[in-house]
Design goal:
509 residues, Aldehyde Dehydrogenase, Chain A, domain 1, 2 domains, 7-stranded mixed β-sheet, 5-stranded parallel β-sheet, binds nicotinamide-adenine-dinucleotide
Length: 509
Amino acid sequence: MIQTRTSLQEETQDLLRELGVPDSSFRGEGLSCRTPITGELLAQITPSTPASVRSSIATAHEAFLEWRTVPAPRRGELVRLLGEELRLHLEPLGRLVTIEAGKILSEGRGEVQEMIDICTFAAGLSRQIGGLTLPSERGNHRMMETWHPLGVVGVISAFNFPVAVWAWNAALALIAGDTVVWKPSEKTTLTALAVQALFERASARLDDVPANLSTLLVGGAEVATLLVDSPLVPVVSATGSTAMGRVVAPRLASRFARAILELGGNNGAIVCASADLNLALRGVVFAAMGTAGQRCTTLRRLFVHESVYDTFVAKLKRVYASAAVGDPRLPETLVGPLIDQPAFDAMQRALERSRQAGAIVTGGDRVIIADAPSGFYVRPALVELDRQTAEAKSETFAPILYVLRYTHWDQAVAMHNDVSQGLSSAVFTSSLREAESFLSVQGSDCGIANVNIGTSGAEIGGAFGGEKDTGGGREAGSDVWKQYMRRATNTINYGNDLPLAQGVRFDID
Ligand code: NAD
C-alpha cells in the first residue's frame, strides 16, 4: 500500500521522533514553528525564560570546569561520535532542514554533510592544536606558547543555515575544551532540537564526559541578548544580519568579550572577456539563485565585460526564465520558497525601487504553487543597471541579481569593492593576469575570493568569513580554532642565574 501523508506537520513530528526529540519538546506553547513550503504550522515550542537561560549558562560554565581537564584527543572522540550520529541521520535531518528552512533536498542534505565534514576535521585537529616554541634571548631559557580553552561559547545562528553554523562553532569549541550554549533562529528551532538530540546521543556513548557540554536556548533576540550580556560567556559567535551585529558587537565590546561576527554579504563576481562562458553561467546561476538567494554568500552583483555582455546576459535570461521554482522536496526543483512574507515584501520593494531608478527587471514575480498557496515562491530576478545604485549596494535577502556592464578591469574591481560588505567574491577568466590581480591586494577586498567558481558553497577546510560590514569573523577550517582558545606565553629558566630581558640589571646584593 502506498502511504500518503496527511500533512507536513505529521511528517515533521515523525522526523523529530526518528531523530530522538521527545514529544514534550515540540508540544509546548509560545513559539509557532512554520514551514515556508506551505506556511503550515509544524509545532509549538515553549521559549526559554530569563531564569532558564541563566541556569543553562551557569550549568555550561560548571561543565566547562570539568571538560577543560579532559585530554583534547578524548574531546575529539566525542566530536567524532557526533559526526557518526550525523552520518546515521543524514537523511531525516536533511529532510527536516528542507521542511523548516525551505532548502531543496540536496541542499538540506548538503548542510548535514557540512556538519559531518567539520566533525571529521575537528576530530583530527584535536591531536594537533598546539603552540610554537620560540628562541629566548636569554641563556638557559626556553619560550613557548600554550593554548587553553576560554569557557562557555555562545552561538547565535541565522535561519538560512539552521544547523551547519552550530556545527562549525561547536565542533571546534568542544575539541578546544569549551562548552557551548546555542540560540538558533526562532524561525528554525525544530532542526536545532533535532541536532541537540543527536548531540546528546553522541555524549551518552561516552561515560567519562560531563553532561551539558552543549545546550539549547529557544526564543528570539531577547533570549540571545541574555547570552550576549552574560559575564560567564567569554566568546560569542553571532551569525545573522549586519543590523543584528550592530547591536551585538558593542554589547560584547563593553565587557571585552570576544566576538566572532558572521554578518550580511553583498557578493560580486566579474565575468571577463576571456571567461569560459558556459562554466561561468553555471557558477553564476547556482550562486545567484541557489537557496532562493538566501545565502550569506549568494551572488548579488555581476559585472560583465562589454564584449561578452549581450551573449552572456541572453544566456542568463534563458536560464532564469526556465529554472524550476517550486516545492523543495521535488527532485526537479532548483528554487524553493522564501522564508516568509516579510522576505517576499522586501524583495518586491527592492525591485520596485530599481524600476524607479530606470533598471530593466526580468522575473521577480510571485509563483503560485497549487498545493501551497500560502508559500512565498518567486521567479529569480535579473536587474540590469547602468550604474551601481544604492539598492544594489544593500543586501536584500532574496534571489535578485544586479547586472552591470564594464569596459576596463580597474573599473570592474572598483565597482566590485564599492559596497560596505566584504564576504565572498569571484572572477571568471582565462587570463592569469586577471585571476592573480583579483586575488592580490589590489583586487577583491573580501574574506573569500574565488577564481572560476561562484561565490557560494565554501568548503569547511578553509577559514570562512568576511570583512567590513560582514563583521570580520572567521569560522570552520584553517587556524580558526585559535579563536576559541586563549594563548599563554611561557618563559622557562632552566639555569642557575636570573638574567633579565633587554639586558636590564637589577642587583639586590
Ligand atoms: P537575523 O539578524 O534576523 O537573525 C539572526 C540571529 O540573530 C537570530 O538567531 C536572531 O534571533 C538573532 N538576533 C536578531 N537580532 C538580535 C539582537 N538585536 N540581539 C541578539 N540577537 C539577535 O538574520 P536572519 O534573517 O536569520 O539571517 C539572514 C542574515 O544572516 C543575512 O543578512 C545573511 O547574510 C546573514 N548570514 C550571514 C552569514 C555569514 O556567515 N556571514 C551566514 C548566514 C547568514
